[in-house]
Amino acid sequence: MQRIIFLTLGWLACPGARRAGHCIAILLPTTPFVLLAAWCFARSSPRFHHWLLWRSPFGRYLRHWQQHRAMPSGAKGRAILLILVTFSLSIWLVKILWLRLFLGVMLCLLLLMIWSIPVAAETPDDRAPPR
């Protein structure tokens, strides 16, 4: 029963696994859902866990995090740029002062968190599927 619960939760959390996931990924951050899917699949289905690591668009980043506990080079810069663009647009569109200040504080905290994550270069082993 526990396996079925983890398997179901993993598929519900995986944005690339269903068409509605693309809409959800636009409205909500994708990373927590991908991490939840990886966690659930690791506990319920080696087959789907392998799919997520080697066939999904998120696999490269998940494998790199599992092996190095770091972001791949280049990913940090893209993440920071995307965060700056989206938060700047949000701050510009919002007219309520306290909400603008809250978004500014959240932006600073998120940038500090991203900045603190180490970066590790990819190795050839990161790209080859396990045998």
Number of helices: 8
Strand order of the largest sheet: 1-2
Q: Return the structural class.
A: mainly alpha
N-to-C span: 30 Å
Roughly how many Å is the radius of gyration?
A: 17 Å
Unreliable stretches = 19-27
Strand content: under 5%
Please describe the biggest sheet, giving its number of strands, its sense, and whether it closes into a barrel.
2 strands, parallel
Gross morphology is globular
> Taking all residues together, what is the mean pLDDT?
83
As a percent range, the share of helical residues equals over 70%
Total E-strand runs: 2
Oligomeric state as shown: single chain
Describe this structure in words.
The chain is mainly alpha-helical and 131 residues long. It has eight helices and two strands. Strands 1-2 form a two-stranded parallel ribbon.
List the helices and strands and how they pair.
Elements: H1 2-13, H2 19-27, H3 31-44, H4 46-54, H5 59-68, E1 71-72, H6 75-93, H7 97-116, E2 119-120, H8 124-127
Parallel strand pairs: 1-2
Helix pairs in contact: 1-3, 3-4, 4-5, 6-7
Quick description:
With 131 residues, the protein is mainly alpha-helical.
What key attributes describe this structure?
131 residues; globular; 8 helices; mainly alpha; 2 strands
